Amino acid sequence: MVTMENTVAIKSSPGRDVSLNTPAGVLRGLAWPNPGAPRVLALHGWLDNAASFIPLAPYLNDFDLVALDLPGHGYSDHIAAGHAYHLSHYAAEVLQVLDALQWGACCLLGHSLGGAVGTLVTATAPQRIFALSLIDQIGPLSEPAADFPNRLKRSIEAHAVSRDHKKAQYPTLDELVERRRLAGGIDDEGAQLLVTRNAQRGANGYHWRSDPRLRLPAPLYLDEGQAQAILTAIQCPVHMILASDGLVVARPNTERRIEIMTNLVVEKMTGGHHLHMDNPGPVADVIVSFLQSHVPAGD
Fold first, then answer.
1. Taking the CA atoms of the chain, what radius of gyration do you get in angstroms?
2. 44, 85, 138, 172 - which has most CB atoms within 10 Å?
3. Domains plus CATH for the chain?
4. What percent of the chain has pLDDT over 90?
């Protein structure tokens, strides 16, 4: 297991703002351009945003890196009224982003939700992805197929009620930072980075910029057979960082998913679910080693 000791601090760079017109709306993010270098598209976790990768970016300066705000997150547009967020939609939108960037193919780097989306993209559009690097994630969440009727019922009811809800207001940014720190189990610095792209000032204080519908029950989960089918369909090399105190290590299906992926390399590291933010140096070391072995220069 890789530990988090002897880390050399590197000054983080906020990156350049990027705005992309896609069929899903205007999707935004951060870019650390390096023309001609291997291309990497980074996808963040649920209720995070592109700032999730600011601590990691300086260590990836040999790559042409773009970190996306997924729809409903950060500065990206929200989906249309009356609709719900789903992994399959995110996967299609990631491919639209590659088209907008005019990237024929790239590597995907995904944390948590972004990692789950990355597995769907890689399985269904293998010609667009050279390699997949996952941070504390190995495929989409699943639940028994028998749970689907109740899930759909709860989702429909929750979305109907949510139309009448107003966004909660907080008097100071510090309160948002503290709430994000507690919710994500991350340090103050990481929480502040995420809040910078997810706070909006209103008449009576601050509120979350992210779409409130992201917190509602999804209308559909894959069952475990479908989730494993996605993973076994992935043809390119896959690298996963398994956090010792993260979310994935405790899931009952993690061991089986690792077993069925013959093209998967697992790196066990000490840290929590946001270990790429908490101590990015050691995380970057293993990611860079993997990418340099598998990702060609930009086409």
1. 18
2. 44
3. 16-148+221-294 (3.40.50.1820)
4. 81
Length of the chain: 299
Whether 8 shows a pLDDT value over 50: the answer reads no
Give me the pLDDT at residue 298, please. 52
Name the DSSP letter for residue 45: -
The span from the CA of 232 to the CA of 263, in Å, is 9
- The question of whether 162 is a catalytic residue gets the answer no
pTM of the model: 0.94
Mean pLDDT of all residues in 96-113: 97
How far is 232 from 292, CA to CA, in rounded Å? 24
Q: Name the nearest CA neighbour of 45 among 94, 110, 93, 113.
A: 113
Integer CA distances (angstroms), 254 to 10, 137, 140, in order: 33, 9, 11
Which residue in 112, 133, 142, 210 is the catalytic one?
112
What average pLDDT does this structure show over 180-186? 85
CA 263 to chain CA centroid, Å, is 21
